[in-house]
Amino acid sequence: MRIIRRKSEATTILTPGEVFEVLRPEPSQRLRIIEQITDELCRKTGTRIAMDKGSCSLLAERMDIDLRRLSRLVKEAFAKALQLGAPLAHIAMPQFCGKRSIGF
């Protein structure tokens, strides 16, 4: 980033930064995240829809799925159960997405 003071004068801004290494959440932490998302959705919609414990624990064990996708899967399952009027939401498990070849 450069700041132009005058037409001929430019200075570089150097900002010191700290690097934090954030570890992936453990399966038990991921399960708590799923429960928290479910509780928040129940509170916002005013309905009580439970998540299928088996699919929740399987999803929590899937370390190849990042937290954004995990959140999206939980919300999709909740929305589908809400639309169908079902008291229990089942999470559709995505296929294992390991390392992909980039083609060359």
Provide structural commentary:
The chain is mainly alpha-helical and 104 residues long. It has a domain at 24-89. Helix content is 44%, strand content 10%. The chain has a two-stranded antiparallel sheet. The protein has a two-stranded parallel ribbon with strand order 3-4. β1 (2-4) and β2 form a beta hairpin.
Number of β-strand runs = 4
Bin the helical content.
Answer: 40-55%
What is the CA-based Rg, rounded? 22 Å
Distance between the termini: 35 Å
Low-pLDDT stretches: none
Mind describing the biggest β-sheet? 2 strands, antiparallel
Shape: globular
- Give the topology string: H per helix, E per strand: EEHEHHE
Beta percentage is 5-15%
Q: Which structural class matches the secondary elements?
A: mainly alpha
User: What count of helical segments does DSSP give?
Assistant: 3
Sheet with the most strands: spatial strand order? 1-2
Query: Can you give the mean pLDDT?
Result: 83
